Q: What sequence folds into this?
């Protein structure tokens, strides 16, 4: 019959249990066991993560196949999404020419985000030769559908004369449409126009109003810039003008929030 003897050894860092089975003597170090268990648990965790990654990769591949099939069948949304993947190299090798190909197919069907994407490609020469006129063409189509980023870019093109004759009034028109949708960069640009009197009559109160709106949403470098401009415009106003501009800014922000 097997004899089992348990001996607790004190005065050392770990408790050692000696087990004697007939002539075989085993020592089990509990601290060592914990270390091995931790390694096993960690290994199982890594295995679980790898399994999840493999499953996700399979999902990505399947989704990509499905998206490409829809795009080839003429689905504008799928064409735009596929173009976006190729532009950013997500799930596929980055390929600007392929991005332009799919953006154009969707843009020609009137898909505003694809028109914006295509305009951006022509503006900076990504996947195509740089062509400001083509950029303006696609920006305008998207802007007319209310796409705020396209309105901002179209306003910039008119302001700087990119692909069109320089026209500050037209720049203000598109900039204001985007600003009224809550775009901080457009609000900042509109403030600059009012402060400098480009495309509009110089009006520090209007400039302060739009700077104030922009500063409530901006971040990073834009926030630093618009905060400086806002404070500069404020210095040109009386307290009653500041109060009126603030009231108007709050009303505009309320309308923006209600549309969301």
A:
């Amino acid at each position: 019959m097997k004899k089992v003897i348990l001996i607790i050894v004190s005065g050392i860092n770990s408790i050692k249990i000696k087990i004697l089975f007939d002539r075989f003597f085993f020592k089990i170090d509990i601290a060592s066991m914990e270390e091995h268990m931790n390694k096993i648990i960690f290994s199982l965790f890594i295995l679980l993560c790898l399994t999840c990654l493999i499953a996700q990769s399979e999902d990505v591949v399947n989704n990509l196949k499905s998206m490409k099939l829809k795009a080839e069948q003429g689905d504008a949304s799928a064409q735009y999404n596929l173009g976006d993947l190729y532009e950013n190299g997500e799930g596929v090798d980055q390929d600007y020419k392929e991005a332009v190909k799919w953006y154009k197919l969707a843009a020609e069907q009137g898909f505003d985000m694809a028109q914006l994407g295509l305009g951006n490609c022509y503006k900076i020469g990504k996947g195509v030769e740089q062509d400001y006129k083509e950029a303006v063409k696609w920006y305008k189509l998207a802007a007319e559908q209310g796409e705020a980023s396209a309105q901002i870019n179209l306003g910039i093109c008119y302001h700087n004369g990119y692909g069109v004759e320089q026209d500050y009034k037209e720049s203000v028109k598109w900039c204001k449409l985007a600003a009224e949708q809550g775009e901080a960069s457009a609000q900042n640009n509109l403030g600059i126009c009012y402060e400098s009197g480009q495309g509009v009559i110089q009006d520090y109160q209007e400039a302060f109003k739009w700077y104030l709106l922009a500063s409530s949403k901006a971040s990073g470098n834009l926030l630093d810039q618009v905060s400086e401009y806002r404070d500069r415009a404020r210095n040109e106003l009386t307290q009653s003008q500041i109060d009126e501009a603030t009231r108007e800014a709050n009303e505009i922000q309320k309308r923006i929030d209600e549309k969301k």
